[in-house]
Amino acid sequence: MRLLSVAVLSGAAAVLVAVGASAAASKPVEIRDAKADVPGVLDLQRGSLSRASDGRLRASVTLAGKLDPKAMLAKSGPPGSVCLKVWTDAGADPAAARPDRLVCVTARSDGDLRASVFEETARGLPRRLGAASVTLNKSARSLVLRVSQSALGRPELIRFAVESTRPGCERVSCVDEVPDKGAVRRFRPRGSA
Fold first, then answer.
1. By CB atoms within 10 Å of each CB, which of 38, 57, 103, 191 scores lowest?
2. Which residues contact 189 (CB under 8 A, 6 or more apart)?
3. Is residue 52 in a domain?
4. Number of domains composing the chain
5. In this structure, are residues 26 and 51 in contact, taking their beta carbons and an 8 Å threshold?
6. Under a CB-based contact definition with an 8 Å cutoff, are residues 87 and 97 in contact?
């Protein structure tokens, strides 16, 4: 009976260790961008993606200057945005296909940011799937996005990139991408990066 109790306790401990390991934070996959390759505050400097200890994905985006939500609002045209672009389909070619998920930050008002998860559709405008959380760090240069894996469909592997778009501008020259030239980075949400 005593051996059975020890075996049960050992098995329970192994399960707890496995659960803890799967929920543990992962090492970030980082991407960097050249300084001053586009004008303005939304010039991307660095992006990273990792799994937070709560299981959500954590994206950090550092900009060239301090971000004031008011600066993302446009007098006319679309607001400025910073988006994590995500390809969840293992067979997708990121060089030829749009990302199937976007996690984007825009300004809700002149003092408030909001983040949303979108699904790209073949018919044009992305469809909003839900909310993500966004915080601005103390320096006001880095955005931290948190999004549940279920909002992205719980893929085994994703490819990702980051882009920012200046407010009021719809030209390609108003977009900053990292990595440059359509490149992407790979990340395993549930395994090691």
1. 191
2. 51, 57, 149, 152, 154, 155, 156, 157, 158
3. yes
4. 1
5. yes
6. yes
- Tell me the CA distances in angstroms from 83 to 7, 10, 29, 46, one per residue in order: 49, 45, 16, 13
Query: Using CA atoms, how far apart are residues 192 and 175, in angstroms rounded to an integer?
Result: 31
Per residue in 54-88, pLDDT (tens digit) is 999 999 999 998 999 998 999 888 899 999 999 99
Helix (H, G, I), strand (E, B) or coil at 192: coil
**pLDDT number for residue 180:** 83
How far is the C-alpha of 42 from the C-alpha of 33, rounded, in Å? 12
The Cα angle at residue 142 between residues 137 and 146, in degrees rounded to 5: 80
Structure tokens of 16? 């707890």
Does 12 reside within a domain? no
Q: Is residue 4 part of a domain?
A: no
179: left (phi over 0), alpha (psi -120 to 50) or beta: beta
Q: Which domain holds residue 168?
A: 25-187
The one-letter amino acid at 167: P
Q: Is residue 100 a contact partner of residue 76, using CB atoms and an 8 Å limit?
A: no
Q: What is the CATH number of the domain that holds 44?
A: 2.60.40.1190
Q: Is residue 9 part of a domain?
A: no
Across the range 158-185, mean pLDDT stands at: 89
